Amino acid sequence: MQNPLNGGYSIIAGLPMYNEEETIGTVVTMTKDFVDEVVCVDDGSSDSSARIAESCGATVHRHRVNRGYGGALKSLFQVAREKDVDILVILDSDGQHDPKSIPDLVQPIIDGEADFVIGSRFVDGGKTEHMPAYRRLGIKVITAASNLSSDLDISDTQSGFRAFSRKAIERLRFDSDGMELSLEMLEDANEKNLQIREVPTVIRYDVPKGSNFTAISHGFAVLAYAMISLSQKKPILVLGLPGLGLFAAGTAMAFNAINGVTDSVDAIVGPGLTSLWIGVLGISLMATGLVLQSARNFIRHLLIKEFGLA
């Protein structure tokens, strides 16, 4: 039965869930008021999360083993395709996201203005409560690296509060099983010309959380993905510029060594060899960057010519 508040659109909320028995009941109960169905993916929990979610009215899909955040989202997208829904909303099971913000999140999709909507902490009107400084810094660094590779200019690439249109549900595909899926999803949406919007939201951090080690390790994994993606899409930036810097440094060291030739042979051997390998490394990086950039441009040209794809 469709929720009359949704104007005839079928909307389900998807909640990745892993050992969230402290919060899942409240989140499911609050979310039910704004969607037609709440679907939880129990990602190998060892506590009572699944039982509590079901008792509060959610449909629970179980993973026998923990497959990670990306694995849970793959299952939620599959469920959304099978149910043929108009909109899929993703939010966390730990209470960080306010279900009352779901109408604002889905409105750009209902208005036909977006296929992929992100609840952002960093646009006007958005905010965080009790957000640790190291998390804020990590998110800013990851977002900057992601925007360099995609040119999307997203303010909050790490927000897990997201909504997807039927078009996005059908077209998006991703491989990652970890938190790096947050970036892969944006890249795939951009490559498939899906419209992406951000709306302001509030994300809380005064809720039961995992260990700091988990948060930090996830952050490094996502940052590594962003840097690899950047090196693939803009090799001149990632390889060419550092290569130019190394070449310049090697050249400067070589001239300095030559100027000191009258002092002693021993004094110039070390700096001379160092300048040589730094210069060679710089030239190698610049050449690699140019080759990769040329290859990328050639492949894009072929795709556009043969298939009309950018």
Topology:
Elements: E1 11-17, H1 24-31, E2 37-43, H2 49-55, E3 59-63, H3 68-83, E4 87-90, H4 102-110, E5 116-120, E6 127-129, H5 133-150, E7 162-165, H6 166-171, H7 181-191, E8 196-200, E9 202-204, H8 212-233, H9 235-259, H10 265-307
Parallel strand pairs: 1-2, 1-4, 2-3, 5-8, 6-9
Antiparallel strand pairs: 4-7, 5-7
Helix pairs in contact: 5-8, 8-9, 9-10
Would you kindly provide a written description of the structure presented here, covering whatever features stand out?
There is one protein chain. It is built from 10 helices and 9 strands. Helix content is 53%, strand content 14%. It has helices at 24-31, 49-55, 68-83, 102-110, 133-150, 166-171, 181-191, 212-233, 235-259, 265-307; strands spanning 11-17, 37-43, 59-63, 87-90, 116-120, 127-129, 162-165, 196-200, 202-204. It is of the alpha/beta class and 310 residues long.
The low-pLDDT segments are 210-215
Hey, roughly how much beta strand do the residues contain?
Answer: 5-15%
CATH class of the largest domain: Alpha Beta
Cα Rg: 24 Å
The third-level CATH topology of the largest domain is Spore Coat Polysaccharide Biosynthesis Protein SpsA, Chain A
Main sheet attributes: strand count, strand direction, barrel closure: 7 strands, mixed
In short:
The chain is of the alpha/beta class and 310 residues long.
Summary tags:
alpha/beta, seven-stranded mixed beta sheet, two-stranded parallel ribbon, 53% helix, 14% strand
